[in-house]
Design a protein that fits this description.
The strands form two sheets. The protein has an eight-stranded parallel beta barrel with strand order 1-2-3-5-8-9-10-12, surrounded by eight helices. Strands 6-7 form a two-stranded antiparallel ribbon. Helix 3 packs across helix 5. Helix content is 48%, strand content 19%. By secondary structure, the chain is of the alpha/beta class. It has twelve helices and twelve strands. The chain is globular. Helix 2 links the parallel strand 2 and strand 3.
């Protein structure tokens, strides 16, 4: 299992770079960062991480496909991989209707089919240096002629069965968020395995990337209250709600409740043992890349660096 840090860049870019350097110093294998619609460009931030570190892997978990044409995504990925000396992992996702349509004024239709076309173009450009795809959602007639690493990992975000199977069949890994260990074991692994078998491949070498929201704190109740707000927000998004319902949380969410048991299943909140136990649950469920996404925001929280060190053990 690879141990990863999942980082939110926060208010200070300089501070984020120092935190990534600390993760490398502590022996973390990878650093992952998502792209949020209201903050810094993650690919530019990753460039800062690349020049400030020498060993740790760098992954996007994830970049929304509708903000970049797939040819531009491939150009960016190959360039960032070259800049980092072959340490980049590209993670992409379809995002959500509220963002794609409400914020960007675009259409989110048939997401699995759209992702399949997008992934085909990006993969072809990275693997062979050219792409010729006439799709319903994305079209590309393009070449990439500068240095590229043909085996650069290309992963997709997936929550529900068809996207998980697409990940297994066509990608090098899957990036998860808010999936419980039970969902990873009972839904993610079997669906990904089915996709791999369709492509004539085993699970060997396939990455299942899972972030564990984590807070080292003397006030677990306060930590749960902070994380509960995140769960509530994601439960309002259809893709996540469908996955959460399938995870066994449907009844309490229908009642408008988010129990301590649900919070404790999804996160590691409390002392160092609580954080390491949460990481272990995801590892045992089948995640191959797992680690803390530190958060605080409540009285008693020890902070980012302390949480990072506690998870490392």
């Amino acid at each position: 299992m690879a141990l990863a840090l999942f980082i939110d860049v926060g208010r200070s870019l300089d501070e984020a770079v120092k935190r990534v350097q600390l993760a490398e110093k502590l022996g973390y294998d990878e650093v992952w960062q998502s792209q949020l619609p209201y903050t810094r460009d993650t690919t530019v931030v990753m460039s800062a991480y690349a020049v400030a570190t020498t060993r740790v892997g760098l992954g996007t978990g994830v970049l929304p496909i509708y903000t970049r044409h797939p040819t531009a995504m491939a150009q960016m990925a190959a360039t960032l991989d070259e800049l980092s000396g072959g340490r980049f992992r590209l993670g992409i996702g379809v995002s959500h209707r509220a963002t794609v349509e409400g914020m960007w004024g675009l259409k989110l239709e048939r997401p699995v089919e759209a992702m399949a076309e997008y992934l085909e173009i990006v993969t072809s450009l990275i693997r062979s240096g050219s792409a010729s795809v006439e799709g319903k959602f994305f079209t590309a007639r393009a070449n990439y002629t500068t240095p590229r690493r043909e085996d650069m990992p290309i992963m997709i975000s997936a929550l529900n069965p068809r996207m998980l199977e697409l990940a297994g069949e066509k990608a090098d890994g899957v990036v998860l968020w808010m999936c419980s260990p039970a969902y990873v074991e009972k839904e993610v692994v079997p669906r990904v395995k089915a996709g791999r078998e369709k492509a004539g491949k085993s699970l060997e070498g396939f990455a299942i990337v899972a972030s564990v929201p984590a807070s080292l704190t003397s006030n677990p109740a306060g930590g749960r209250d902070v994380f509960r707000r995140s769960v509530q927000m994601y439960a309002s998004l259809p893709f996540y709600r469908k996955m959460m319902d399938a995870s066994g949380f449907a009844a309490e969410l229908e009642r408008g409740e988010i129990s301590d048991a649900m919070v404790d299943e999804l996160a590691g909140i409390g002392d160092a043992n609580a954080i390491r136990e949460a990481v272990r649950r995801y590892r045992d469920a089948g995640a191959t890349v797992v680690g803390p996404g530190p958060f605080s925001g409540h009285e008693g929280a020890a902070g980012f660096e302390a949480t990072l060190e506690a998870a490392r053990g």
